[in-house]
Backbone:
């Protein structure tokens, strides 16, 4: 059996670090090496690209092993802090009563299901409950039938869809009107308090949903785009592994030629489906400015997040990538997800 310590030393060397480097140093070195060895930077010859893929595989494995080992080491350290006004007897717990970070259960999520059968989960770091899947054809049809006068582009995307597929060919304005209709409908029916409402997620909320919200800097969505390199909704590997989501067929990750029924792939750590691929999702914000409900600008474009079934670019599928389109634009690769704000 190989010595685990020796394995970690090998991993440090793979990341060009001395044994015993800190977690922060491991992360920084990994990001620099991942940028250097990314296959997209070495596509001038098959041999160079093949070597880059092999190097990226070793880098990814080394980083994951070191990250887990160093996080376990950090979690195993406990610090006693004596609360003001209390004696030492009250500030310490017995060893049996202490719970490590890795043993703590995740905060319990609030879950609700609305009148259309859409399920919502609370997301840490946001005041909103996120729909666990993208808005379906089933949901949008209920709105179109009840509201009347709704643009009919969603009915004929040019490929077959069932009621469980994400609705496409909807503009930001279409999505905002859907949210307003659903809010008013459920308030009238007594199913939604008057101080609660549905809306599109903000760009910052979407980042929390995909798992990067705590690590993003301040700035406009455009300024924050692509800052977190080599981080994808499925992890750090490129290309995406099998069944990571619904992307362009050239990536070979899935069996769908176009959109896929919502929830066809595993949910993320937040319990949300399809944050990677299937359809781009509208956000509340302008790409170059702050969020503003009901705000309009002829020159501005709204934020889109998450990639879609017809995208395959390594940059476009980053968790931090921001796409954008005019708020009246419609596309077969664009849908939306809504959130519920309770007061």
Residues:
């Amino acid at each position: 059996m190989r010595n685990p310590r020796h394995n970690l030393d090998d991993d440090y060397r793979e990341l060009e670090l001395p044994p015993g480097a800190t977690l922060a140093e491991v992360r920084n070195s990994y990001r620099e090496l991942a940028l250097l060895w990314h296959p997209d930077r070495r596509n001038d010859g098959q041999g160079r690209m093949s070597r880059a893929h092999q190097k990226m595989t070793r880098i990814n494995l080394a980083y994951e092993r070191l990250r887990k080992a160093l996080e376990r080491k950090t979690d195993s350290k406990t610090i006693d802090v004596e609360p003001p006004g209390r004696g030492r007897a009250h500030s310490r717990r017995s060893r049996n009563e202490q719970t490590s970070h890795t043993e703590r259960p995740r905060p319990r999520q609030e879950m609700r299901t609305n009148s259309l059968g859409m399920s919502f989960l609370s997301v840490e770091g946001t005041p909103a409950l996120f729909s666990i899947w993208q808005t379906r054809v089933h949901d949008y049809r209920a709105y179109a039938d009840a509201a009347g006068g709704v643009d009919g582009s969603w009915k004929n995307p040019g490929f077959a869809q069932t009621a469980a597929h994400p609705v496409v060919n909807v503009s930001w304005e279409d999505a905002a009107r859907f949210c307003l209709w659903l809010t008013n409908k459920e308030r009238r029916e007594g199913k939604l308090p008057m101080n609660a409402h549905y809306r599109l997620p903000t760009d910052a909320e979407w980042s929390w949903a995909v798992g990067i919200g705590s690590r993003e800097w301040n700035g406009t969505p455009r300024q924050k785009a692509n800052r977190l390199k080599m981080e994808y909704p499925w992890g750090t590997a490129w290309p995406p592994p099998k069944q990571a989501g619904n992307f362009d067929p050239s990536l070979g990750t899935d069996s769908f030629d176009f959109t896929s029924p919502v929830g066809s792939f595993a949910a993320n750590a937040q319990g949300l489906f399809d944050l990677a691929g299937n359809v781009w999702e509208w956000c509340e914000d302008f790409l170059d400015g702050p969020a503003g409900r009901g705000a309009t600008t002829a020159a501005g474009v709204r934020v889109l997040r998450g990639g879609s079934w017809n995208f395959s670019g390594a940059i476009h599928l980053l968790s931090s990538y921001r796409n954008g389109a005019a708020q009246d634009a419609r596309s077969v690769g664009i849908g939306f997800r809504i959130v519920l704000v309770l007061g």
About this structure: The chain is about 30% helix and 10% strand. The longest helix spans residues 46-75. The helical segments are 4-14, 23-37, 46-75, 88-91, 137-147, 172-188, 203-210, 221-224.
